[in-house]
Design goal:
CATH architecture of the largest domain in chain A: Orthogonal Bundle
Oligomer: heterodimer
Shape of chain B: elongated
CATH topology of the largest domain in chain A: Arc Repressor Mutant, subunit A
Distance between the termini of chain B: 69 Å
Order of helices and strands of chain A: EHHHHHHHH
Mean pLDDT of chain B: 89
CATH architecture of chain B: Orthogonal Bundle
CATH class of chain B: Mainly Alpha
Largest sheet of chain A: none
Largest sheet of chain B: none
Number of helices of chain A: 8
Largest interface: A-B, 53 and 42 residues
Number of helices of chain B: 4
CATH topology of chain B: Arc Repressor Mutant, subunit A
Shape of chain A: elongated
Strand content of chain A: under 5%
Number of strands of chain B: 1
Helix content of chain B: over 70%
Mean pLDDT of chain A: 83
Number of domains of chain A: 2
Order of helices and strands of chain B: HHHEH
Low-confidence stretches of chain B: none
Distance between the termini of chain A: 47 Å
Number of domains of chain B: 1
Structural class of chain B: mainly alpha
Structural class of chain A: mainly alpha
CATH superfamily of the largest domain in chain A: Winged helix-like DNA-binding domain superfamily/Winged helix DNA-binding domain
CATH class of the largest domain in chain A: Mainly Alpha
């Protein structure tokens, strides 16, 4: 069975203590942090690199670097925000190696043209997810997220799935708060468009506006 | 009245309940008068909800095992230096 990671909503007040014990050589404390976040870091790495092997490398490098540089963790942000930042840097380095001719940033695939285009307007069923089995729903949601550009995927996952605040997401991704907000809006609207295909009320025709 | 474009520009803050006072009242007025924006707002809210339920994620066992092995090697190396 795969290892389930603990939701971010788990109390994180113990993290300063865990990091401080890990710094003093208590390996069990570091393992607690690792188990808490490995799933999320792996998903983040997959979102950016789109490649299982690269994502595994990023996961390992992020935790090894975090362990090496535990003394640099300030404790004024969450451990998760800190390790996301390390993992994003590692993932971007991977992309750079893959395309050695130029610098790579998370934002590069953005088409800044139509920032907030809404294509499909159709009401959904009140509980649209109940029309599908758990597996079908998982497939629909994963498929929709996978079609997003890495920056949108990453911002949406950190902000709306993992529950980081806009400010924490900005810090983790080294983006400005307005940049996070505009990417989040676009991600939400794109996902909404994609899900409308599956969730719209029967007989309700989708049409475009704006 | 707000235009649909102006409404969309505030949609995130509206959904995250970060808008207050006059701007919130304007957004609510627009929603009451614009069926398209009402649908977009309602379905975007549902989109966020449905993904929230997806928050658990896992690492495949083989990847977890190799990660643990790499970290343990690092820890052991750290201990031998002390």
């Amino acid at each position: 069975m795969a290892t389930e990671s603990v939701p971010i909503e788990t109390p994180v007040d113990d993290e300063v203590e865990l990091v401080s014990r890990a710094r003093e050589g208590d390996t069990a404390s570091f393992s607690v942090l690792l188990r808490r976040y490995e799933g999320k870091i792996f998903r983040l790495a997959m979102n950016i690199t789109q490649n299982r092997e690269d994502a595994e490398d990023v996961l390992q490098e992020a935790f090894l670097k975090a362990y090496e540089h535990l003394d640099q963790f300030q404790g004024n942000s969450r451990f998760y925000t800190w390790i996301v930042r390390i993992a994003v840097n590692q993932a971007l380095m991977k992309l750079r190696k893959r395309r050695s001719d130029r610098a790579v940033s998370l934002d590069e695939q953005i088409d800044t043209g139509e920032d907030t285009v809404v294509r499909e307007i159709a009401s959904w069923d009140p509980d649209p997810e109940e029309r599908f089995s758990r597996d079908e729903l998982h497939e629909i949601l994963s498929g929709a997220i996978d079609e997003l550009a890495p920056i949108y995927k990453t911002v949406f996952t950190l902000r709306d799935v993992d529950g980081l605040s806009t400010e924490e997401t900005a810090e983790a991704l080294d983006l400005s708060v307005p940049a996070v907000k505009s990417r989040l809006l676009r991600a939400r609207l794109q996902l909404r468009d994609k899900l409308t295909r599956f969730f719209k009320r029967k007989g309700d025709d989708a049409f475009a506006y704006m | 009245m707000l235009t649909c474009k102006e409404f969309l520009a505030e949609l995130n803050d509206f959904l995250d309940e970060k808008t207050k006072g006059e701007i919130r009242a304007k957004l609510e007025r627009h929603l009451a008068e614009c069926p398209n924006c009402w649908v977009v707002c309602d379905t975007t809210r549902k989109t966020i909800q449905v993904f929230k339920g997806m928050s658990s994620c896992s690492v495949p066992d083989d990847i977890h095992d190799r990660l643990m092995a790499a970290v343990e090697r690092k820890m052991a190396a750290g201990r031998s230096q002390q």
